[in-house]
Amino acid sequence: MSLYYVQKLLYQLNRDPELRRRFANDADEVLASYELTPEEREAIRKPDIGLLYVLGVNGQILMHFAAYRGFEWNAYLEAMREGVRRHGPVRAGIYALVEE
Amino acid sequence: MPLVFAGVCSHAPGITGRAERADPAQRDTVYAAMERLRLAIEAARPDALVVVAAEHFANFFMNNMPAFAVGMADHYEGPIEDEAWLRIARRRVPGHRALSERLVARLMHEVDVAYAEEWLFDHGIMVPLHFLTPRYDLPVIPANINCQGPPLTPLHRAYTFGRALRHAADEVPERIALVGTGGISHWPATPNSGKINEAWDRDFLDRWTANRREALIAYSDAEIYRDGGQGGFEIRTFIAVAGAAEGSTGEIWCYTPIPIFAVGCTVGVMNLAG
Known about the structure:
By secondary structure, chain A is mostly helical. Chain A has a single domain (3-87), classed as Protocatechuate 4,5-dioxygenase, Chain A (Orthogonal Bundle). Chain A has seven helices and no strands. Chain A has helices at residues 3-15, 17-25, 27-31, 38-45, 49-55, 59-68, 73-87. Chain B has one domain (5-260): LigB-like (Protocatechuate 4,5-dioxygenase, Chain B, 3-Layer(aba) Sandwich). Chain B contains ten helices and ten strands. In chain B, helix 6 (155-171) crosses helix 10 (235-244). The termini of chain B are close together. Chains A and B meet through helix 1, helix 6 and helix 7 of A and loops of B.
């Protein structure tokens, strides 16, 4: 469980075009620099927006990351819902789903 | 010289990025209010626009999170977001390093601020600028209050930061306009996006227009999270503007809840007492 480093990598990808270029060329090389579990590495690589949401990535970081990875708005919202269906409630942070 | 303008507005990325998905009449109401705000700022003939924002991890992260930060550069750049997603082209935005430095030096007498000679803008600043300085010809000085990475900046400190901004503006010869941008209630970047607590928003705006400090800072973060969502934490930016305009009252030019924009779109001003 290294949510801090998951968020750190996504934060840096979101703001740094050079890191995005390196990530596109060789994701493993970039991922190796961060202290991540195999599950976290795969969630970032795919990307599995739903799992990243459930792991507790700050919503603002995840929203920007999803946009950069090409998720259209509705697809992004649905990916988060699907994540909760598959993996259960959000495990950390301040962006949990609210039940109406 | 005393602040020449103080106002607030929303900054939700949907306001530009999902424009066509809103009811056109509601969207146009919001756009017209933003245009009115632009004209009011221009009429105040500012030399610089201080934007008190609640950034979303464009610059500051949990490795070194400042409670308050102020930009101190001659230019900035944004948005960091995908341009097609936000529908705002990436560009350079003019700053005013020398003025920032004088403001920061004065601010530090009252509030411990971090300064930053590099600063990337996200939607939290780019959406307001898109409407308020569409020619990007007015120097911008960004300021940030931590509304994202708990522990968050306490509300009463946000008010104090506003007071300090006013004192700093008083002591420089330049004409400074101030805009705070954030909130009000919303659950952005969650599957609940579109949920808006209009009653809570209107109660908050009543406190803001009356500029009642004790009422504005009375919320706990648990209450804000329950009633206003994680987006509600951004009321700190409005509270800072109230602090800068202490002794004045305000008015709301627009409050229009638009779920696809994820917020009650708000435009307000403080009628600065002579």
